[in-house]
Amino acid sequence: TTTALQTFLLAIVLYPGIQACAHVEIDQVMRHDKMPCPDDRVSLPYLDAILCKVLRWYPLAPLGIPHATSNDDVYGGYFIPKGSNSYNLRALSWDEDMYPNASCFNPSHHLTVDGKLRDPFVHHCAFGHGR
Questions:
Q1: What are the distances in angstroms from CA 9 to CA 12, 36, 47, 50, 94?
Q2: Does residue 9 contact residue 1 with C-beta atoms inside 8 Å?
Q3: Residue 129 near residue 92, CB atoms below 8 Å
Q4: How many whole angstroms separate alpha carbon 34 and alpha carbon 52?
């Protein structure tokens, strides 16, 4: 939680336009006499996109949580021996082929054309890489 909050604060300081857009969304959805609750999350897709970007931009565990391969494998022409357990989550989350301009903090990458949140678990390395 601490790392995610620090990354969020860094992004807000470096990209004040992001903060302004988030503030506008909050003002449009929330009333001043009501505290936010989990039910409001559906109405705040830009804030969800910011969270997705925070988790991708600077992963909480840059070297990931180790998993071991159960068998020898070949992937993309690379031999991966049984028992291998290293991968670099930071490198995967900054892959320019999957995340164009990966160093830029742009939450709109996680939104559809009509402003809805894309499925946050599809192609998002912060939530794992599958089997």
A1: 5, 20, 13, 11, 20
A2: no
A3: yes
A4: 25
| Helix, strand or coil, per DSSP, at residue 36 | coil
Q: Give helix 16-29 / helix 2-14 axis angle, nearest 10°.
A: 110
Confidence of residue 17 (pLDDT cuts 50, 70, 90): very high
What are 65-112's pLDDT values in tens digits?
Answer: 667 788 898 888 989 888 887 667 777 777 788 778 888 898 988 888
**Three-state secondary structure call for residue 26:** helix
Prediction pTM value: 0.74
What b-and-e string marks burial along 40-79, b requiring 16 or more CB atoms within 10 Å of the CB?
Answer: eeeebbbbbbbbbbbbbbbbeeeebeeeeeeeeeeeeeee
Distance separating alpha carbons of residues 18 and 20, to the nearest angstrom = 5
* Residue whose token pair is 């970007």: 53
**HEC letters along 78-110:** EEECCCCCCCCHHHHHCCCCCCCCCCCCCHHHH
